[in-house]
Amino acid sequence: MIKQDTEQLSLEKGRRPGQPGHEIALKFLERRMGEIGLAPYEGDSYALPYGEFTNLAGVIEGTDSSALPVLIGAHYDSAIDGPSSDDNAVSVALILHTAELLIKKSPSRSTVIAFFDAEEKPNFLTKNMGSLRFYKDHCEDMEFACVIILDMIGHNFEVGVPPVDLLVPGIKDFMFVLGSESHTQLPDIVERASKDTKRLRIIPTLNRYIGDRSDHHAFRKAGQPYLFLSRGWGKYSHTPKDNIQWINFSGVHRIENFLLRLLEQLDTAPMETRLEPADPFRYEIRMMRKAIGWPLPFILACLGFFRMALHSREDINSLMRKVLKLAKF
Ligand SMILES: [Zn+2]
To answer: Do 75 and 117 touch, CB atoms closer than 8 A?
Structure first.
């Protein structure tokens, strides 16, 4: 189903606002949200138009109305007039499928399923950006247990340096999780959800290392707990080669499993109580060690950008500086 929905959204001429593909994607999403059985987030339609743009939102009602809701969101517009399967058709398809599974589990927290418009340039971080508008118009006085945003999760991870990408085993399975620092419960939740994830190497990273690259911006700024899942910028991002052939669907299914475990953890975690923020560097180091695994540290050390000794925030800072420089972020 994830593959089919990704295909349906990977329109040859893309989904840019104002283009015919945008309207096709909108109609398709409304139909799929209905089939899945989501309740409209507001009024009697999933569509929440603003000016020339339209966000979409539905809800899976939780069994405990006093529990804070979770939001899962991704943008559905495209940056170019091309399929844009990785950015961001596949995230939307994954969320649709997750919603379908979730509805059968009847979780205690309500789940808001949101598809945002106008994430891409020239609307990025402007007043037209769908997620900013959604937050401002529809949930400014709400509190979320957690907001989970997905963007560019379909391609294999790559550093962009051919010898590293070819020689280092398992590098393609890396995925970044940003935002664990936004709530004291999140490091534990991410760590537990990533136990026994085969062939998905999860690297938690502070948002400030990378900066706001997607729709989590609106929620982070508002002080809501959030997680941002992404494989980062890839070699075909924002080009016509970002098409269905570029997507690793077994990798996508592994991310879906991880997301389902995150939701399971979130459903019972005491997200309502917030403790003093703490620097989660020990968790980052543990997760990084696990994700990198032998013999990667050795190879990376030989290539000269990995310090085997990783003990403090300072060590992570210097590693991240090197990695980000290499990955041309
Ligand atoms: Zn994107």
So the answer is: yes
Q: From ligand 1's centre to the CA of 86, what distance in Å?
A: 8
Q: Is the pTM above the cut of 0.85? A: yes
Give the CATH number of the domain where residue 214 resides: 3.40.630.10
Q: DSSP labels for 49-95?
A: EETTEEEEEEEE--S-TTSPPEEEEEE---SSSS--IIIIIHHHHHH
Q: Which regions in the chain score pLDDT beneath 70?
A: 294-308, 326-329
Ligand 1: centre distance to CA 286 (Å): 29
Q: What is the Å distance from ligand 1's center to 87 Cα?
A: 5
Question: Which pair of structure tokens corresponds to residue 29?
Answer: 């999403």
- pLDDT tens column, 252-263: 999 999 999 999
pLDDT single digits (tens) 82-140:
999 999 999 999 999 999 999 999 999 999 999 999 999 999 999 999 999 999 999 98
Where does 27-184 show beta strands of DSSP type E? 39-40, 47-50, 53-60, 70-75, 111-116, 146-150, 174-178
Q: Which residues surround ligand 1, an ion (CB under 5 A)?
A: 87-88, 151
Domain that residue 70 falls in? 2-277
Is 74 inside any structural domain? yes
